[in-house]
């Protein structure tokens, strides 16, 4: 039995980046041998075990072959006879197909270290084209390592185009697609993810609404520079689409509720926000009511942030104006209205009228 550290932990150590999760590979062992040493099995599709003391995951070396469509269409074979090289060749990129033994010796049968040094994202073998999820993964790695100068190899882009043209991307579940999109949006240069997908034809297959839309990538890049949260980044990317397209995209990908809501609101109200200084109080109040700034102030803050990103740091005085308007509306005290005996619809209408007065005063101040 031989144990190796594999994948991202080896890659990031060589890049001088922090190593968080460690994947361990076990060569030459059986399921029974692992269990006899106290490892607890957790893998449903292939043998993965938890270390009895550290809780880290240890996987038996395995091979795989294509047996159906989509990400899950593979048959795995784990055996003590599977070699380290046979396990590593099934991985996506050469930089992820390196291993270290317990003495720290590097095993690099597919020249991942060379590609690290040359800043190249290159597939390990032609079997890369069998897994459509790898189109998104490579684009995500491109977004992560763009600040270090990494580029996708032309031959790898060619295989990604082959996958996109095959229709295999349509076999990905919404959950798997969104997981990769979400992770990519939180990378340092998420706009690169979209650019790579566009260059290989994957954008038209997965996110056709964005393929010919407005250029929102500078705003997305700005959101990443300022470390905005996921909903703001998603809203920046979708800004400029028609409401129906935003709704369709959100529903098809099963995006989280916060992302769906903010993207829809930015699509509906961003242009109004851009002209906030000229808005009549009634129009301003309608907008604040739609956002429910009284109970969900953070959502309005995220909306303003998404609008600010589109200016690319050139300033957005409308933001402070909208924040002030929201504060003026929130400052209206409902207590006197309750004490006057108002309830139900009458109370709601009176409260709305008071908030309108507050916004009129705010605008004229």
Describe the overall structure.
- The protein has 365 residues and is of the alpha+beta class.
- Helix content is 53%, strand content 10%.
- It contains 19 helices and eleven strands.
- The strands form three sheets. Strands 3-4-5-2-1-8-9 form a seven-stranded mixed sheet.
- β6 and β7 (74-78) form a beta hairpin.
- α5 crosses α8.
- The longest helix has 21 residues, at 344-364.
- The protein is elongated, with a radius of gyration of 26 Å.
- The model has no long low-confidence stretch (mean pLDDT 93).
Mean pLDDT: 93
Instruction: State the end-to-end CA separation.
Output: 77 Å
Number of distinct beta strands: 11
The number of helical segments is 19
Low-confidence stretches: none
Shape: elongated
Summarize the SSE layout with pairings.
Elements: E1 2-6, H1 8-15, E2 23-27, H2 31-36, E3 40-41, E4 48-50, E5 57-60, E6 62-66, E7 74-78, H3 84-88, E8 99-101, E9 106-107, H4 112-118, E10 120-121, H5 133-145, E11 151-152, H6 154-166, H7 174-185, H8 190-200, H9 202-206, H10 208-211, H11 217-225, H12 230-238, H13 243-253, H14 257-274, H15 281-291, H16 297-309, H17 317-330, H18 335-339, H19 344-364
Parallel strand pairs: 2-5, 10-11
Antiparallel strand pairs: 1-2, 1-8, 3-4, 4-5, 6-7, 8-9
Helix pairs in contact: 5-7, 5-8, 11-12, 12-14, 12-16, 13-14, 14-16, 15-19, 16-17, 17-19
Which keywords apply here?
elongated, 365 residues, seven-stranded mixed sheet, two-stranded antiparallel sheet, alpha+beta, 10% strand
């Amino acid at each position: 039995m031989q144990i190796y550290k594999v994948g991202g932990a080896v890659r990031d150590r060589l890049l001088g980046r922090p190593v968080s999760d460690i994947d361990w590979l076990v060569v030459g062992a059986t399921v029974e041998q692992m269990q006899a040493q106290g490892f607890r099995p957790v893998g449903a599709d292939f043998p993965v075990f938890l270390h009895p003391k550290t809780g880290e995951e240890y996987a038996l070396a395995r091979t795989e072959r294509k047996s159906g469509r989509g990400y899950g269409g593979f048959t795995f074979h784990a055996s003590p006879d599977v070699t380290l090289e046979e396990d590593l060749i099934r991985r996506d990129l050469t930089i992820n197909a390196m291993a270290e033994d317990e003495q720290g010796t590097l095993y690099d049968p597919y020249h991942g270290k060379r590609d690290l040094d040359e800043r190249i994202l290159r597939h390990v073998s032609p079997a890369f084209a069998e897994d459509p999820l790898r189109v998104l993964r490579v684009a995500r790695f491109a977004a992560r390592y763009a600040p270090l100068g990494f580029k996708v190899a032309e031959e790898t882009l060619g295989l990604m185009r082959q996958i996109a043209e095959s229709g295999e991307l349509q076999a990905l579940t919404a959950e798997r697609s969104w997981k990769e999109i979400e992770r990519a949006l939180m990378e340092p240069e998420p706009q690169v993810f979209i650019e790579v997908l566009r260059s290989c034809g994957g954008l038209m297959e997965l996110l056709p609404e964005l393929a010919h839309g407005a250029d929102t990538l500078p705003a997305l890049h700005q959101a990443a520079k300022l470390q905005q949260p996921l909903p703001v980044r998603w809203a920046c990317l979708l800004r400029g689409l028609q409401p129906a397209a935003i709704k369709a995209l959100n529903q098809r990908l099963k995006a989280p509720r916060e992302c769906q809501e903010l993207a829809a609101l930015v699509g509906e109200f961003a242009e109004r926000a851009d002209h906030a200084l000229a808005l009549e109080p009634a129009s301003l109040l309608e907008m604040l009511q739609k956002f429910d700034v009284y109970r969900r102030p953070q959502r309005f803050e995220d909306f303003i942030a998404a609008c600010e990103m589109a200016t690319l740091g050139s300033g957005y005085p409308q933001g402070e104006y909208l924040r002030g308007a929201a504060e003026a509306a929130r400052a209206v005290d409902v207590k006197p209205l309750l004490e006057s005996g108002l309830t139900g619809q009458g109370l709601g209408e009176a409260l709305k009228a008071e908030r309108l007065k507050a916004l009129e005063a705010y605008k004229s101040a």
